[in-house]
């Protein structure tokens, strides 16, 4: 049976189904995408709660976006209609649908792991890719 116990408003622990991305996470995820859309793949600016991105991971993210062939833009509100988070026994796996200047909603996603400890959520960027 699925657990629907919210750990904070909007964050649902349910191993059996994906749910909308928690509203309180959205500003942080928007800041990550804003950095990427500005070419800051290592996220040199301070974004509270976001783990540093290694040079190797940043290169992979940049290469995947470049090979996609479209210009990444900041997230519109519509992105939250299809983006999801799913509890995975100790963390959330988050997939955020990305948008480009040329096509609007794209096939690219931002893949992030969200962890909660002592009431605070931290985010670890895994990759940007086409699933």
Annotation keywords:
globular, 131 residues, single chain, 20% helix, 6-stranded antiparallel sheet, alpha+beta, two-stranded antiparallel ribbon
What does this molecule look like?
25% of the residues are buried. This protein has one domain. Strands 3, 4, 5, 6, 7 and 8 form a six-stranded antiparallel sheet that branches. A two-stranded antiparallel ribbon has the order 1-2. The longest helix is centred in the middle third of the chain and has 14 residues, at 55-68. It has helices at 26-37, 55-68; strands at residues 5-8, 11-13, 19-20, 72-73, 84-87, 92-100, 104-117, 120-129. With 131 residues, it is of the alpha+beta class. A hairpin with a 2-residue loop joins strand 1 (5-8) and strand 2. The radius of gyration is 14 Å and the shape is globular.
Please write out the topology:
Blueprint: E1 5-8, E2 11-13, E3 19-20, H1 26-37, H2 55-68, E4 72-73, E5 84-87, E6 92-100, E7 104-117, E8 120-129
Antiparallel strand pairs: 1-2, 3-5, 4-6, 5-6, 6-7, 7-8
């Amino acid at each position: 049976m699925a657990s629907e116990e919210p750990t904070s408003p909007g964050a649902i622990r349910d191993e059996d189904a994906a749910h909308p991305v928690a509203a309180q996470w959205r500003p942080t995820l928007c800041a990550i995408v804003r950095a990427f859309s500005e070419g800051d793949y290592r996220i040199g600016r301070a974004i509270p709660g976001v783990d540093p991105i290694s040079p190797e991971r940043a290169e992979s993210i940049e290469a995947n976006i470049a090979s996609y062939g479209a210009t990444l833009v900041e997230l519109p509100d519509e992105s939250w209609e299809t983006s999801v988070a799913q509890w995975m026994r100790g963390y959330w796996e988050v997939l955020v649908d990305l948008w480009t200047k040329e096509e609007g909603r794209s096939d690219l996603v931002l893949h992030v792991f969200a962890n909660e400890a002592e009431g605070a959520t931290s985010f670890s960027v895994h990759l940007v890719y086409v699933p």
